[in-house]
């Protein structure tokens, strides 16, 4: 994959809005919707994922609700893979399995996937807009593995290294890629 120049990374970082104290006091919310509204920055972001994951045998790209659904769908279409939505409880119409996990600003959340979304042995890339503490990502991996899928790795637009989620995933043996990191959370 072609490395981004420092200028390209800084230009993309500038498109991401930071909202202080959302959803609660002390959280610096990194809002990728402002990156997506910039057609050039969005295309560059997706292209970087596509260059990295094309030709790697990935059969499904799983997107974590909500913002991960946007990037995962775009990447899946371009690398010729199926798309699997990982949704919050109660949003999928067919038979599901679920995994409950903790969050840094809320006690718990539940993630679900359709039972028929992933076949045993399929290679699955899991995507989200950012990695914070790793709880949501680990729940996603458990869902994929419970369906018999193999987690190819994780891909994120943003890493919040101060919260340790990417390191947690790597320590668990998962490959991780993030396009940029922000200090502070």
Structure, described:
- The structure is a single chain.
- This protein has a domain of 126 residues: Rossmann fold, CATH 3.40.50.
- 32% of the residues lie in helices and 31% in strands.
- It has a 7-stranded mixed sheet with strand order 5-6-4-3-7-8-9, sandwiched between helices.
Task: Give the gist of this structure.
This protein has a domain at 56-181: Rossmann fold (3-Layer(aba) Sandwich), CATH 3.40.50. It is 32% helix and 31% strand.
Identify the notable features of this structure and list them briefly.
single chain; 185 residues; alpha/beta; Rossmann fold; seven-stranded mixed sheet; two-stranded antiparallel ribbon; 6 helices; 9 strands; 32% helix; 31% strand
Rg, alpha carbons: 16 Å
How many helical elements? 6
Based on the structure given, which CATH architecture of the domain at 56-181 is correct?
Answer: 3-Layer(aba) Sandwich
Strand content: 25-35%
Average pLDDT level: 92
Structure summary, number of beta strands? 9
**Quick one: CATH class of the domain at 56-181?**
Alpha Beta
| Element pattern in H and E | HEEHHEHEEEEHEHE
Strand order of the largest sheet: 5-6-4-3-7-8-9
State the separation between the terminal residues, measured CA to CA: 28 Å
Describe the main β-sheet briefly.
7 strands, mixed
Backbone shape? globular
* Fold-level CATH name of the domain at 56-181: Rossmann fold
Helix content: 25-40%
Detail the poorly predicted runs: none
Helices and strands: which structural class?
alpha/beta
